[in-house]
Amino acid sequence: GVVLALSGFQNPLRGHLRAAAAALGAEYRPDWTPECTHLVCAFARTPKAARARQEGGVVVGARWIWECQRQGRRLSCGPYLLDGPASSGSEGEEPDEAPPPSNPSPRVKKGAGPPET
């Protein structure tokens, strides 16, 4: 019964999240709609997250998807909830964009340049 949308993730991470959720049986929507049950967000305090909360959605970080994938089942959202009021931006906030557990490549933040080899 999970219908989710993603917010704040760039490809290829966005594609990995979508694929992992689909493999677990979730339905994906390209944007938040009233039928969505979960918004998987990189940032807690965004207008999209506030809208999802106002409409009864659950706002979680990417770690929820990765842990569900790792354990092969739907987990409680409680430990993965992203809480916070809406703000016009997300400055000073760290994104919740943990890579998939099976991805051994180093995490690279947007604008950080290529990883050193």
Automatic annotation (TrEMBL):
Domain of life: Eukaryota
Alphabetized SMART domains for the sequence: BRCT
Record-annotated BRCT domain positions: 1-82
Source organism of the structure: Prunella fulvescens (Brown accentor)
InterPro entries from the UniProt entry: BRCT_dom, BRCT_dom_sf
Protein name: XRCC1 protein
Recorded GO CC terms: nucleus
Gene3D superfamilies for this protein: BRCT domain (3.40.50.10190)
SUPFAM superfamilies for the chain: BRCT domain
GO biological process: base-excision repair
Annotated region (Disordered), positions in chain: 77-117
